[in-house]
Amino acid sequence: MRTDNTELGQFVTFQKRTLYDVFDVTSLLHEGCNALGVMLGAGWWAEPSIAAGPRQFRALLSVTTAAGGTVYYPSANAVGVPGALVFNTTAGPVTADNIYDGESYDGRIAAAIDGWTACGFVAAPGAWVPTSAPAQSPTAYGAIISSHAVPIRTDRTFSIAAGGITQPLPGVYVVDFAQNMAGQTTLSVNDCPAGTVITLIHNEILNPDGTVNRNLANMVGKYTCAGTGGQETYRTLFTYYGFRYVQVREIDAGA
Predict the structure, then answer these.
(1) What is the pLDDT of residues 19-31, one digit of tens each?
(2) Given 57, 81, 124, 225, which is the most exposed site by the fewest CB atoms within 10 A?
């Protein structure tokens, strides 16, 4: 279960400022075992023009006791650190993400690690490894640490109007949301064969033949089907698009 409805963090120059998020997880806790799962995208940190370094994650869980005291559980990369949150890591279903170039998501990977955020999850041998070297504090390279002032959240959901889907070419469908927006898209498919790749091309204008123009930006989402036999749903996670039209096409199929 998600901690809240925040979609994206702010994009900043990490060498100058590092922003953190604060979430109230009280309502998510229950008696017995509780687990904390985190999925990291590449983000602005990994942009070639920024070249700031590898992805890193730090957490601090603050617990207020019945007596009114506070206990802190920081993240660490070594078992045996008193009161530490120790994480294991593996490659996730988001295989590529870029604020300019879109996102790729492999449903087969997601299916293979289904339940990874729950207590009692049994990982495949060798698939998960302890977190690596300690995360470097942002202050080590001169950054100021502060909280996100204005979290990015979904303001509204748009449905497709009647007649809003056209087929300019065989196997190519264009969805018209009737207005320009900055947003994320959700794709749902049924009985999609494993390995089928579906592209979602976003943009604000069409070509003369009715297909979506790609000259202004490369805002493309790619979903690889898991082949579960039921409904599969993919929603953009680590980027957003400026668009009115979304072109949907199945580009490959195979086991």
Answers:
(1) 888 889 988 888 8
(2) 124
